[in-house]
Design a protein that fits this description.
2 copies of one chain form a homodimer. Chain A contains 16 helices and 12 strands. Chain B binds a DNA duplex (30 and 30 nucleotides) through α6 and α8.
DNA sequence: CCTCCTTCTGATAAACGCTTTCATGGCTGA
DNA sequence: TCAGCCATGAAAGCGTTTATCAGAAGGAGG
């Protein structure tokens, strides 16, 4: 049985009102009756009013959360003093500080973020624009961004890019910019990302996590996909394959780095350049692509746009009775968590999405602070496993 | 060559300043020189000042984004009129409306969300607390939440729960509550989620997306894992297996529904209840669990806590030379996107995470609006594929 | 011992950008 | 001519922070 400041039983009020009821409610009531804070003897009146309030007679009153002024009144100090205790911007006597902290505790006070943001002009949100949250690379990058943001006390807001037209990009951007943003990070792994980047006003600090080098002059944290694809292709050629087929993933408005790197490596080696097979980055489309390639009969090595596609491609080959890697070698891209335990285990180009996400935040913050930071950059690394081998014929 | 209102060439200014430069900059300059808005003839002075500003002589001035008062001044109307045009809260003559819209366009004005939130008391952020963004179920639920939130004009903020102790839950909660939140949704699939739920103050509207029924009396969008596990176990028993082994995933503070359902089904069937094998929800731990089970020699059917674990378990069995489903049947939980193309394709209990995420938002909003909404609820559905079959001996 | 100056603490007030209420002035229609 | 309506503007918040100011306490010098 907890007892309020004037002997009012909060539990009684609570039972009468049929809902939780806090010290704060009591004070609101006193205020309403016009009682100064430490006025004893009006407990009964307060209780009555409290119950009225709690039962909905005056809903708005009860709903109001405690504000700085409430804390100040309860602690018997002025509003700025409370603010100073909270922010530590100026010295406050130990005595008052204690009172203030106790009042905050009692009232369950939490600063109003909107008011704080308005007064300080400081922004504490980083908005992430992405077309997807579920696929491995996207999800990892988001995790990296969130971790880095949290480390410096920022919150991450997420906005999905639904359509791949300019209009829906604009809508998404408008929604995101409706918040007081410190900056924006766009996951520019696809056309939606590029569209969103284009739709962003130049006035807002922006960084992109990107797998392509060119485009609008926005600072980018970059995967050097091109070099990665070149390495992967050279690896397969080095195993003795005459050429390497490619299952492409959708391009973000311009030829993807993976495609370019693949073609460059083939050209450099003087190998024939097969027609590209398209996919939509899903395992299912990989299945279709694999079935198509299996039907051709002359395929011995395939570089896939990502691991999920590679899984589908491998599955399709196996369904057609071809063995991987004995009959055909498959190399993926990203190093998906399941690549390791796939059958056969998948040889792939590892990318550290989370790390690039983290560095993208640092990059953005550095630019915000006016410190020149070099654009982060990461080259995929070959992870040799069991899905690629020298050709058998 | 665009020309400013008094014949000032913005392009000239831009070239001189070496950075993009907008109409708005001009007006700021006029303001600084003390010119009323439509005052002709001071173009040259403005340009000079503009270049000073842009080149950093007065950085703050240039940095200031346009506010409602700027729009009002440019449009030649009062501040409330602009506000009315924006919110449509009161009629405005077509004439002024047009002027206002043009001014907004020219200045690239965007309302300040913090000020708006402060004035209206309306909150536009839903915070999602989760221990993970990358795993399938979590990522899908986040997507569902984001979609539903976006549909009603809300933004989703993401905060990861790092440690599984109370202290780090408190830190995460504090960070999230630092924003002006409309409400919080906790993904309570694990102990971190439960901790966060416990750390949330009762004053903030909260909903949980959960796979367990009990716990703190917070409204929950619920997966009926228990029924799902019961169904899965009964399915395996129905195929003729003497009993079913279980590879468990970490519990969120209390026995997981999956475990309970599994045990109930076995008890009801009078089947022996084998010891549970633990995993940490990763494929790799599934590998270990599978190796352990394969070593026992008497295992014919396994129900896994999720699909990723099931993948590992299957792989381990195969590595030990056991065939799935001929020698041992494996059933998963969740219907991971790769379950379909795994070898063998995985029989599993499908859960629609995205849909439950969406309904959780509706649920939260309904409660915010005071409309009584029934707690959403979803029962996993058996998807029969190729990884489970009758025992062969 | 009194006064003046310094130092430290707390309070008052003015922003921050937007919404909203209320009052006013110009119209229309009877 | 006057009531009534409508568009508009002035002003008062919303909950913080911060700059400025006043007052008290304390020490030193006369």
């Amino acid at each position: 049985m907890t007892t309020g400041p004037d002997g009012v039983h909060l539990d009684v009020a609570q039972r009468l009102a049929g809902r939780p009821c806090h010290q704060h409610d009591l004070w609101l009531c006193r205020e309403r009756v016009g009682l100064p804070y430490p006025a004893a003897g009006a407990a009964r009146l307060c209780l009555r009013l409290l119950v009225c309030t709690l039962t909905g007679v005056n809903r708005r009153l009860h709903t109001r959360p405690p504000v700085l002024a409430d804390v100040a009144r309860v602690a018997g100090v002025s509003v700025p003093t409370v603010s100073r205790v909270l922010s530590g911007s100026a010295p406050v006597s130990a005595d008052k500080r204690r009172q203030v902290l106790r009042a905050i505790q009692e009232l369950g006070y939490r600063p109003n973020a909107a008011a704080r943001a308005l007064a300080t002009g400081k922004r504490s949100i980083i908005s992430v624009l992405t077309s997807d949250t579920t696929r491995y690379g996207y999800a990892s990058a988001i995790r990296g961004i969130e971790e880095a943001a949290r480390a410096v006390g920022l919150v991450v807001a997420l906005t999905l890019l639904d359509g791949d037209d300019n209009e829906s990009a604009r809508v998404a951007v408008d929604l995101a910019l409706g918040q007081p943003l410190a900056g924006v990070i766009v996951l520019e792994f696809d056309i939606q990302g590029s569209r969103a980047l284009a739709a962003l006003p130049r006035t807002i600090p922006t960084a992109a996590v990107s797998s392509a080098g060119q485009g609008r002059s926005v600072p980018r944290a970059l995967f050097d996909d091109r070099a990665g694809a070149r390495d992967a292709t050279n690896y397969l050629l080095g195993l003795g394959h005459r050429t390497v087929h490619h299952v492409g993933i959708p391009e973000s408005g311009r030829p993807s780095g993976r495609l370019l790197g693949w073609r460059e490596a083939l050209e450099a080696a003087g190998a024939p350049i097969p027609e590209i097979v398209e996919s939509d980055e899903t395992p299912r489309s990989g299945l279709r692509a694999g079935a198509h390639l299996a039907g051709r009969g002359d395929v011995t090595a395939v570089l896939c746009g990502n691991d999920e596609v590679a899984f589908g491609v491998i599955k399709a080959f196996q369904d057609e009775g071809m063995r991987v890697p004995e009959d055909v070698s498959v190399v993926g891209f990203d190093d998906h968590p399941l690549a390791e335990i796939w059958t056969p285990s998948l040889t792939t180009m590892r990318q550290d999405f989370a790390e690039l996400g983290r560095t993208a935040v640092d990059f953005l913050l550095g630019r915000l602070a006016g410190v020149p930071v070099e654009a982060p950059h990461s080259t995929p690394r070959l992870v040799v496993r069991g899905s690629a081998a020298p050709p058998t014929r």
